[in-house]
Amino acid sequence: MSEIFLLFAGGVGAAKFIEGLVKVVDPESLKIVVNTGDDIELFGLKICPDLDIITYTLANLIDKEKGWGFIDETFNCLSILKKYYDIGWFNAGDKDLATHIYRTELFRQNYSKDDITKKICKKLGVKAELIPMCNEPVETYIKTPNGTINFEEYYIKYQCKPEVLGIEFKGIEKAKSIDRVLEYIKIAKKIIICPSNPIVSIGTILQVEDMKEALIKVKDKVHAISPIIEGATIKGPADKLMRCLGLDVSCVGVAKYYQNFLGHFIIDNKDCKLKPEIENLGIKTYCFNTLMVNLKKKKRLAQFIINIK
Ligand code: GDP
User: Whole-prediction pTM value?
Assistant: First the structure.
């Protein structure tokens, strides 16, 4: 097999990086393990938010402004769904709902999440290989002072405002890594941990059986991009979740969380003063402009990582 690059990805942050990466390497060389810990069932439909974001990005169909869903989307179906169901907070456009309907129908025919992902990618013309972190259902719950709520609800309905008292991955103990992912970990030229939520995107993937142990064995190949710049997230609740786990909200905190399996860490130029602290953990550290505000910056970051020896 020709050279392959294995990626670990969440949603929006990873999609930005991948958009640049496919411009500097052959998309067919990419194997992307995607978090499925924030999958949810709503309106009787199976929804995989992170898989959909990465699929639509690679199919050139993503709404870049929103960071999710299809471009040129309409919301007619949702306007009626909201009359039938008491779920006013979840947004899914008409085209997006078509993906959820197709996926749900395939689940009913007993296809696995892995096979369904392959089918959707093929139909939408995605050349990279997308692989769900596992076939088993895993759901992320956030413990707040007012009760435990689904992560999507915490994120979208409550806009990450409630205090986070704990994080629970329901079903994770039964989650098995897909065989060829363990093989890809062994043979990949590089493994790249995308700039994604370290706790509820990457952290979930890492808890799938055998995943972390397999990465530890190939530490020298593992590269990560910090999703935290100057002690803050670009978007999303990574800061609150890191704090809840007792981690420092900084690239050093992320490095400590990934320490056991991380060989190389790309931090933002603005955090370069923290480089010695991370190198003391035994991680080779590089400073670069990691804020991906346009395609040029996304490509530059991707090329920089591909060039690391
Ligand atoms: P979601 O967006 O909540 O689905 O979650 P992701 O798993 O994609 O994680 C978002 C993370 O990506 C956040 O912690 C952001 O700080 C990070 N992120 C988003 N955009 C950028 C960027 O341009 N550069 C870097 N370094 N991190 C980013």
Answer: 0.97
